[in-house]
Amino acid sequence: MSSIIRKVFSRRTLAYVSGGTAVALGSGYWYLNSGPAYPQSTRETRRAPPPWTPPSRSEMLDSLRASGKGDGTKPPTQEEEEVFDLLIVGGGATGAGIAVDAASRGLKVALVERDDFSAGTSSKSTKLVHGGVRYLQKAVMELDYDQYKLVREALHERRIFLQTAPYLSNMLPIMLPIYKYDFFLFYFDGPKADHDYMNRYWQVPYYWAGCKMYDVLAGKENMESSYLMSKGKALETFPMLKQDGLVGALVYYDGQHNDSRMNIALIMTAVKLGATITNYTEVTSLLKDPTTGQLTGAMVTDTLPGSTSKSQSKPFPVRAR
Question: Which of 12, 16, 114, 193 is most open to solvent, judged by the fewest CB atoms within 10 Å of its CB?
Fold first, then answer.
């Protein structure tokens, strides 16, 4: 026994343990502080941009009509008009993002939306800018490297989101209550239900380790560290929680944003870059080249309430290459 103790506490063993601990701590510190360096704000970067007034809706419609001069049966020549390079149908998150990307590359872009901008799915999201905790769980459980890369990329994009538009994004603490039983089994089968997986105490270290791994993957771009919350503190924060079987809670941080306002910001950015964008402009049919069969534009209608003029309500062609 004494020989074993002497070997365990020998100078060589202590040196190995000390060196390994130092390397682990140094590597962890370097990883947590890794990531892109964001420049410090200065007076110039904090200065408000010069005032800018976007074109009116009537001017946008005139630009759309100017691209479709002709009888609508064949695409007009370059001498007759200047057509758009790209016509985007739909002013949601996808259409607005494409418009910003194309306009920033110097293309002549037109976008039409039959309703208001982000009136559909783009305003009905979870409002979260998250890296994906469940994707991290899948990456670990299934040893899926692609899911791991997805989480890393999403965490990086989350930081860019918060850095680019802090007035539309913010940190969101999310509390996850942890029960010692499956609430649904308890509700349907009663408190004496005989199930091997009723007790859920193992979820406390399981969720804690997963959220800590989530924090470590974010590295320097992490917002706040996750932490455990006692049962009393959880009930104090949310008094309407189910008390029976409550063990505690886990709090972790993710991002939140205003999806509809963010969509409007993308639309305005595309307009500032030179794109022609209108809402309440419905596409009624597509135009094709009769010889090649390729799409050359669309017939659109101004459907804005109050537009009683026949010239406004009459469909007109919008041409694109």
Answer: 12
Neighbours of 197 (CB within 10 A): 9
| pLDDT (tens digit per residue) in 37-84 | 556 667 666 677 788 889 999 899 989 988 877 544 455 555 445 789
**In whole angstroms, what is the distance from residue 168 CA to residue 259 CA?**
8
**What confidence score (pLDDT) does residue 35 get?**
55
HEC states along 220-262? HHCCCCCEEEEHHHHHHHCCCCCCCCEEEEEEEEEEEECHHHH
Rounded to whole angstroms, how far apart are CA atoms 304 and 56?
14
The Cβ of residue 141 has, within 10 Å, a number of other Cβ atoms equal to 9
Nearest one of 247, 253, 167, 193 to 218, comparing CA atoms: 253
Q: In whole angstroms, what is the distance from residue 27 CA to residue 7 CA?
A: 28
